[in-house]
Amino acid sequence: MIIALQIALCLGTVVAQATLSAMLAINGIYPDLCLVLACLFGFFTNEYKGFLFGLMVGLFQDLLAPGGVGINMILKGLAGGLAGMTAHTISTVTTLAVIIVTLALSLGCGLASLIMAYPELDGPEAFRAISGILGPQGLYNSLLAAGFFWFTHTLRDSWGMVHFTQERR
Amino acid sequence: MPRPEHTSFPISTGFRRLLAGGLILFLLLLLFLPRQAQEWLGQMGEPMALILEGPLHGVAALQDSVSETWNHYIALQHVWEDNQRLKQKIQQLQGEQNLLREQAILAREFEKLSKYQATAPMTTLPARIIGRNVSNWYRAIVIDKGTRDGIQAEMGVITHAGVVGRVVRVNAITSIVLLLSDPNVAITGMIQTSRDEGIIQGTPQGTLQMKYLPPLSPVQVGDAVVTSGLTDDFPRGLHIGHIQQITKAATDLFQSGEITPIVDFSKLEGVLVITSFQPTISAESPPSEESEGMIPVLQHLP
Question: Is residue B237 a part of any domain in this protein?
Fold first, then answer.
């Protein structure tokens, strides 16, 4: 049942990415909802589940993306796993930690995607892509993840749902 | 202790019986009195009636007020229910109206495509755009046609206005189309007036660039750029855009130009996938009615 829900969540996120991205775009910068979800899943569960969830959402994203199947799957899997590992390593996951880790993961994944998508990109174009797309997108992703994380924690605190967000490790 | 004697009615029992009997007799006599006497009695009773009127009116007013309040309350209940129902109905109708308006806009778009499809000298398949930009590093759209509909990779995608892009991945019921503004797409094009050919490719910024234009080409800003038909996915003469800027450094062997695309990629709703076409157009072939939908370049062919 839980796996079915997770698959549905992945599918829903990819569909939302494909259909709502234009509405979510700020100055032409789209958030990577799949990456945000993979990171959040890692933060809320553990590195293993984060990795598996990232693989799944990345696979669905790959099926609707022009690049070869595998790149998003690997990157999202790594992002989910690293987010889970971070949550495992630090004692308390705070909103600031979510911002920093998601920003770092977003920049890393974006850089890898950029190299895979445009292997012949020269220096000035790469710099333009990094400063004009990667950076703002990383910030957007991290703020989105932080917002969702904060919202979930507020819900948990106000409703007393202790086991809602973080599993016992 | 002796019980106190009851003193509330000091009248004796015999007198009370007499009084009751007299009263009954009086009432019976009233029935048999002549009408005039009854009227006199009525006049005698008027002051009594006046005394009663006040409380009667009061009670009646109170009754009316209660009744009115109750009826209004009940009516208000109905009004509230009606209001809620009407609000829901309005929302539903607004949704339907919006849907119809959207369908009308879509129908107009598809009508244009359909007209173009009927006249274009190639076989095309109309498709609806169901998603876009799943990944941040590609400018792509997802269309609702796939292998089941005969779509194959590398097929060209156009609208009635001009070139959109190329199919890069085909699933069973969907396909991924890489837009012309993506750097991974390159097609051959030519300047419509001077007939100079070059490669048209997207840039990371989302603009179109025409590379490898001959150094002596008299290309000018505003010149129309069309497909040259040298690649297998697009026939000759499809509109791509207009030259916006021409650049040539002193050390460059070729000129290059920036193109303003004729198609607004962000507002696409329907496209045509080119499934087959005649790759080369014979100059000797007589112009047919079908060729009217093409860009005029075809009519100017040598």
Answer: yes
Q: Are residues B77 and B217 in the same domain?
A: no
Q: Tell me which chain B residues have a C-beta less than 8 angstroms from the C-beta of A117.
A: 137-138, 184
Does one domain contain both B247 and B193? yes
Q: Tens of pLDDT along B246-292? A: 887 777 788 889 999 988 888 888 899 998 876 654 444 444 444 43
Strand spans (E) along chain A: none
Which residues, other chains included, contact A57 with Cβ-Cβ below 8 Å and sequence gap of 6+?
A: A10, A13, A14, A34, A37, A38, A76, A80
Q: In this prediction, what percent of chain B has a pLDDT beyond 70?
A: 79
User: B282: distance to nearest CA of chain A, Å?
Assistant: 36
For the packed helices A71-89 and A95-117, what is the interaxial angle rounded to 10 degrees? 160
Q: What confidence tier does A7 reach under pLDDT thresholds 50, 70, 90?
A: confident
Selected from 1.20.1280, 1.10.1220, 1.10.3470, 1.10.1760, the CATH number assigned to the domain covering A2-159 reads 1.10.1760
Q: How many domains does chain B have?
A: 2
Residue B17 lies in a domain: no
Instruction: ipTM value, please give it.
Output: 0.70
B248 and B130 share a domain? yes
pLDDT computed for residue B289 by the predictor: 41
Residues of A engaging B, defined by a Cβ cutoff of 8 Å: 14-15, 17-19, 21-22, 28, 30, 32, 61, 63-67, 72, 110, 113-114, 116-118, 121, 125, 128-129, 132-133, 137
Residues of the domain holding B169: 125-279
Asked if A14 and B184 come within 8 Å (Cβ–Cβ), the reply is no
Other CB atoms within a 10 A radius of the CB of residue B165 amount to 27
Longest alpha-carbon distance in chain A: 53
If asked whether residues B143 and B267 sit together in one domain, one would say yes
pLDDT in tens, B132-143: 877 777 888 989
Strand partners for B128: B270
What pLDDT shows up at residue B41? 63
